[in-house]
Design goal:
The structure holds two protein chains of two kinds. Chain A is mostly helical. In chain A, about 85% of the residues lie in helices and about 0% in strands. Chain A has 13 helices and no strands. Chain A is globular and about 95 Å long. Chain B is α/β, with parallel strands linked by helices. Chain B has one domain (about 5-250): 3-Layer(aba) Sandwich (Rossmann fold). The chains are: A mainly alpha, B alpha/beta.
């Protein structure tokens, strides 16, 4: 099959759309997470989603994507509140708070998952897919949910661009202007939560943070402007979604979620090497040319001194 | 008589259990440059942050021109400590200065041409107009400080709080800041500055506040900034060197 034929397959089209939209949405909100030094926040929130999903299943007894998302979202919101409570009220710093939340909630999730699997009514199979995700099972309704969520993410980040920017760069100054900084920070966290919740289905708990952070870090290499960075991050995320799905669909039965993450990593490696001014190659070339210039000037000086004697 | 720009009533602040400021009460006249002086850990920056509501107060009341702080946001300008932000943020100098206008813009509104012009004018006032498009991590420490000052100028306030603007800056920046302070004073604006260098206090400021957990003294520099008062504030850890006519002070 050629690429074009692959893309005409309806099933693959849904997966393609889902991965692309997911990449765009998480890339956009991921920029702010990265700049706010909350790179691990996405990772923590993804792990927190697991007990949320389990509790939703235990309470309802049915496997419903909507209920799972709701459970994950509620857990995510609770955990962000606990996290900011810990950092505000104790001497524990944010990185430690994230580690505490991640491990405690994930531990709880694994306990619940094991409990569910041992008290089977036959209905629970496939719940563990949430650990690693399975993009191949995504259908039309999933894509619609993802499209809506990605649109919400992009619209909110566009509307509150100025507020997000100031709160991320200089929270103290923002507070001084009377901005409700705590509220803005909670909103950003909430957006990360919903990006994570929709993403888990495709790439799983473990890899979700990569979709938030990798496009953002790559984008940072190409620009010094926040607006462009957010745009590029969304673009890189979307392109990763497309490439990952195409590779996955061209045979070999490789999973699309992890391939999307690997594609994002590929873009990152390319950025770190070849980005103008920040990239490794361009920095090396710059240093070489400066070195040559300094050497040359030194030679000139020596020659001048020599001729004046 | 005009309202005092700043009236503080019984402010107390504590970090965890340890009180950092106790029962600070004062009010200041309009149009003065006021230096806040005291040893390390005396609560100088804390006082500013408590007034601006950046950290919670145990007790106390702040009145800006006779009204609660929340009603007077647009009259207040703030220069935080330079180390308080990540200078590798993807933005340029002009953009940071434009942030000074954000308080005047409503929700969702983006800064437009008018805001950029005000920001450019502010950059000019601190001598940084040639660096408008420079990425902020590529500015020197002194230049970064001037960017923060320009941002406060763009706020177009009447009461300014500056947290250690003189720390770690070069001579050119120090001079630029002083010129700016005098300019602000000429326009009748009031400026409170957290200051470390005792040698320059009398030269730079009209009024001085001596602070060490409690308010030790506040008033015109010539009355308050005396060897005795300083010894008291610094707990006797000060060696006074009477080299020239003007006394200079050194921490022992």
């Amino acid at each position: 099959m050629t690429w074009f034929e692959i893309l005409k397959e309806p099933n693959i089209q849904w997966i393609l759309w889902a991965c692309t939209l997911l990449g765009i949405g998480s890339g956009v909100i991921g920029s702010f997470a990265y700049l706010r030094k909350q790179s691990l926040m996405g990772d923590a929130l993804a792990h927190v989603a697991l007990p949320g999903v389990c509790i939703a299943f235990l309470l309802s007894g049915v496997k419903s994507i909507f209920l799972f998302m709701l459970g994950a979202m509620v857990m995510g919101i609770i955990s962000t509140f606990i996290m900011s409570y810990i950092t505000r009220k104790s001497r524990i710093k944010q990185d430690t708070a994230i580690a505490i939340i991640l491990s405690v909630f994930f531990g709880l999730g694994i306990v619940l998952l094991t409990y569910i699997q041992h008290n089977a009514n036959g209905n629970q199979s496939g719940l563990d897919k949430f650990l690693f995700g399975q993009a191949a099972t995504m259908i039309r309704s999933d894509v619609i949910v993802m499209a809506i969520i990605s649109a919400i993410l992009i619209v909110i980040c566009t509307l509150f661009f100025k507020e997000f920017k100031l709160a991320s760069f200089d929270a103290g100054f923002a507070k001084g202007l009377g901005y409700p900084v705590a509220l803005i920070e909670q909103l950003i966290m909430f957006l990360i939560v919903i990006a994570v919740v929709v993403g888990i289905q495709a790439v799983g708990v473990v890899l979700m943070s990569a979709l938030l952070i990798t496009p953002a870090v790559s984008a940072r290499y190409w620009t010094e402007k926040l607006g462009l960075m957010v745009f590029l991050s969304g673009l890189f995320g979307g392109v990763s979604g497309v490439i990952g799905t195409i590779i996955s669909a061209s045979g070999n039965n490789l999973p699309s979620g992890p391939l999307v993450v690997l594609s994002a990593t590929g873009i990152f490696v390319f950025s770190i090497l070849f980005a103008p001014s920040r990239g490794v190659v361009s920095k090396f070339l710059l240093r070489q040319s400066v070195k040559r210039k300094v050497e040359k000037e030194k030679q000139m000086q020596l020659r001048e001194r020599g001729s004046s004697i | 008589m005009s309202q005092s720009p700043l009236e503080i009533n019984n402010i107390s602040v504590a970090y965890q259990k340890k009180p950092v400021l106790r029962d600070i009460t004062f009010s200041i006249p309009e149009g003065k440059l006021i230096g806040i002086v005291g040893p390390n850990g005396a609560g100088k920056s804390t006082l500013i942050k408590a007034i601006l509501g950046l950290i919670p107060r145990l007790s106390g009341e702040v009145k800006i021109y006779g009204k609660p702080y929340k009603d007077q946001l647009k009259k207040i300008g703030y220069v935080p400590q330079r180390e308080s932000v990540d200078w590798d943020f993807p933005t340029n100098a002009l953009d940071v200065v434009t942030m000074g206008r954000y308080g005047h813009l409503g929700w969702f509104k983006r800064p437009g041409k008018k805001e950029k012009e005000i920001a450019m004018e502010s950059l000019r006032k601190v001598g940084m107009q040639d660096y408008a498009n420079r990425q902020i991590s590529q500015l020197s420490g002194g230049q970064q400080q001037r960017i923060f000052l320009a941002r406060a100028l763009a706020q177009d306030a009447t009461l300014y709080f500056m947290d250690e603007p003189f720390v770690g800056v070069d001579a050119a920046t120090e001079k630029a800041i002083i010129t700016l302070l005098d300019e602000l004073k000429k326009q009748g604006k009031t400026v409170l500055v957290v200051h470390h260098d005792l040698a320059t206090v009398k030269e730079y400021f009209d009024w001085v506040m001596l602070l060490n957990e409690t308010l030790r003294a506040i008033g015109p520099a010539e009355e308050v900034f005396t060897a005795d008062m300083l010894q008291e504030t610094y707990g006797g850890r000060l060696a006074v060197l009477d080299k020239q006519k003007e006394s200079s002070f050194v921490l022992a």
